[in-house]
Specification:
This protein is mainly beta. It contains 1 helix and 7 strands. The strands form 2 sheets. Strands 1-4-3-2 form a 4-stranded mixed beta sheet, with helices on one face. The protein has a 3-stranded mixed beta sheet with strand order 5-7-6, with no helix packed on it. A hairpin with a 7-residue loop joins strand 2 and strand 3. The longest helix has 10 residues. The radius of gyration is 14 Å and the shape is globular. It starts with 10 loop residues before the first strand and ends with a strand. The relative contact order is 0.23.
Length: 104
């Protein structure tokens, strides 16, 4: 067993060539995004999850791979679109990333 350390994930950034489709996909899983822009950077979306972790979606740029990642999310299955039955579901986001969703 891995010995737990006092480390927390505070930021996750996904780059997507299908930014609006990904925003809708993750919004439908319950993430509440706001549009942001930092200085001269691109407009992107950010959601703050319980515990303070920031989940951001940025437009993909040349040289940024967008598909090598697997996510795990815990959600209230009754509040997502479409609703999910309790249990484990493996979904695929618009960029082809596998998203393991644990619905309660």
């Amino acid at each position: 067993m891995i010995d737990p350390k006092p480390v927390a994930v505070t930021l996750l950034v996904l780059y997507s060539p299908r930014l609006e489709e990904c925003r809708r996909f993750y919004r439908d899983l319950g993430l509440d995004f706001i549009a942001e822009r930092h200085g001269q950077g691109p407009e992107h979306y950010a959601a703050v999850l319980p515990g303070g972790m920031v989940f951001e979606l940025y437009p993909a740029r040349q040289g940024r791979q967008t598909d090598i990642l697997r996510l795990g999310l815990a959600v209230d299955g009754a509040t997502v679109t479409p609703p999910l039955t309790p249990g484990r579901h493996v979904l695929t986001d618009p960029d082809g990333r596998k998203v393991e969703v644990r619905a309660t």
